[in-house]
Amino acid sequence: MPALTGFTLAAGLGYLGAYLGMRRFYALAAFVAAVGILMYWMPIGDFLGASLVIAAAGAWMLIAGSVTLYHYLQHTQIEA
After folding, report:
1. What separation in angstroms does the CA of 17 have from each of 10, 40, 63, 70?
2. Calpha distance 13→5 (Å, rounded)
């Protein structure tokens, strides 16, 4: 189940990256797929593994979005 969850999220994020043209979604898709495979091989339950895949995806999206916002605010001037 964790691998299926990881690959499903990765496919959706890959599509979103292609649709929006944002490379960070490709990196997120690869990360989520890798975490899904890792959770599949770990000796934990399916529910906990799938939950950890979703949590890792959310944490990565929060970090990547924060870094992107920080860089945007640093390179954008406000007109007075």
Report:
1. 10, 25, 17, 20
2. 12
CA distance 67 to 40: 30
* Tokens at 34, concatenated: 């890798």
Helices (H) and strands (E) in the chain, counts: 3, 0
**pLDDT mean across residues, the chain:** 89
List, as one string, the DSSP characters of 11-80. Answer: HHHHHHHHHHT-HHHHHHHHHHHHHHHHHHHSSS-HHHHHHHHHHHHHHHHHHHHHHHHHHHHHS-PPP-
The whole-angstrom separation of Cα 33 and Cα 10 is: 6
pLDDT in tens, 30-58: 999 999 898 888 888 888 888 888 999 99
pLDDT score at 69? 93
